[in-house]
Amino acid sequence: MYIGKVTGKVVCTVKNELLQGMSMVLVELLGSGESTKKGLLVAVDTIGCGEGNIVIVAGGGAARLIGGCQNAPIDLAVIGIVDHQIQQI
Amino acid sequence: MYIGKVTGKVVCTVKNELLQGMSMVLVELLGSGESTKKGLLVAVDTIGCGEGNIVIVAGGGAARLIGGCQNAPIDLAVIGIVDHQIQQI
Amino acid sequence: MYIGKVTGKVVCTVKNELLQGMSMVLVELLGSGESTKKGLLVAVDTIGCGEGNIVIVAGGGAARLIGGCQNAPIDLAVIGIVDHQIQQI
Amino acid sequence: MYIGKVTGKVVCTVKNELLQGMSMVLVELLGSGESTKKGLLVAVDTIGCGEGNIVIVAGGGAARLIGGCQNAPIDLAVIGIVDHQIQQI
Amino acid sequence: MYIGKVTGKVVCTVKNELLQGMSMVLVELLGSGESTKKGLLVAVDTIGCGEGNIVIVAGGGAARLIGGCQNAPIDLAVIGIVDHQIQQI
Question: What domains does chain D contain, in order, with CATH numbers?
């Protein structure tokens, strides 16, 4: 898993029907200046994270195990919000 | 998932038979100059995106969950067109 | 999927028995000078591509869906030869 | 798999319910200065590694095969602590 | 798949029980100076490769299809030793 910062929400009116009702957030990976060069990451959020939260994201098939997404075409999901004390990494 | 821009279509006369009838588009990842250095990405499109659209692509097994592609040898698919207001990221 | 150029064949006398009879080609990803820095890619070919062909490769589980490879330990396969008109990307 | 160094623990009060009771550690990949630019890696630990340990991590579906995690939304796990003699790579 | 050079063995006394008896080798990806910056790769070997061999490695679920490893938490395996004539790539 990676640690990233939630930087916003993503809204798609035209999308795969299996994504209906899913919250999708923009995530910027932390750890280096290089990380922001990997393109803009989008993750499904089911735990209610907000902009500025430091979160853990899981990719690949793991993203479809967060509950309620088993057959959705998604490959990244927020699985936890990192507690305050570790945010100053 | 990643956010990218559709830059064209890809046509293959000689291809795996399971790809017959699938629309394949070229996608350039957004977010940095570095992203274009990752090679040319090709994604299956079932939602009707066009050149210039800003889209979300999902990779790996997720790509085969978009509907009608379960057993096709594909690893990237367009799952949504990002609404206008977020395109100026 | 990625677009790459076939640059040769790979021959292994000592190999996993499930690879017997499979054609394996070297593929150099296109799109940037950076792409060649990702190591030498090897893909299984079942559609008969040749050196110099511009091809689409699919990775991960997708590679095992090309037909006849379902249980083989492979993670990259050629799924199409890009038509001439798009080769000048 | 990759070799990395355990650099700390990650604590999430708000998280996916399937992560309850799992130990999650921060891992910095070894091998180059470049590796630290890949973002902060988080791995599930079931073998009891500690800060400073040099470990092997496995990603993707492999992470869910370490035992007791089959349906958890995780994509990286510690699978071994590298013996002392090889730590000076 | 990638082509790499076997540079040594990895020994773990403390490890996941499903790794018991497996031979794990260090692999350095070939193709560029950049490749060595991706961290230290570890692959399971069941075909008997030795230090200095140029090998093909397969990742992800493919690694668990080499035989006898179906449920092991591994994500990279040696699947072939490249014949001498192609080693001077």
Answer: 2-86 (2.40.50.220)
Interchain proximity D41–A1, CB inside 8 Å: yes
Specify the amino acid at residue D2. Y
- Written as six digits, the tokens of B81 are 């067109």
Confidence at residue E87, expressed as pLDDT on a 0 to 100 scale:
41
Interface of E with D (CB under 8 A): 8, 10-19, 24, 26, 34, 36-43, 60-61, 63-64, 71-76
Q: What is the pLDDT of residue B35?
A: 44
Instruction: Give this complex's ipTM.
Output: 0.91
| Rounded-to-integer distance, Cα B19 and Cα B79, Å | 18
* Residues in chain E within 8 Å Cβ distance of D46: 16
- Please report the number of interchain residue pairs, chain D to chain E, with beta-carbon separation below 8 angstroms: 106
Cα–Cα distance for residue pair B33/A63, rounded to 1 Å: 27
Q: pLDDT category, A64, cuts 50, 70, 90?
A: very high
pLDDT at residue E38, as a whole number: 59
Q: Which two tokens stand for residue B61?
A: 């097994």
Give dist(CA A5, CA A1) in Å, integer.
13
Cβ contacts of E50 within 8 Å, gap of 6 or more: E6
A46 burial type by CB count under 10 A (0-12 exposed, 13-18 middle, 19+ buried): middle
pLDDT at B21: 95
Q: Dihedral sign, CA of E35, E40, E45, E51?
A: positive
Sign of CA dihedral A52, A53, A56, A59: negative
pLDDT digits (tens, 9 = 90+) for B20-46: 999 999 999 987 555 444 568 999 999
Average pLDDT over residues D3-9: 94
Tell me how far apart the alpha carbons of residues E22 and E11 are, in angstroms, rounded to a whole number.
Answer: 10
First to last CA, chain C: 16
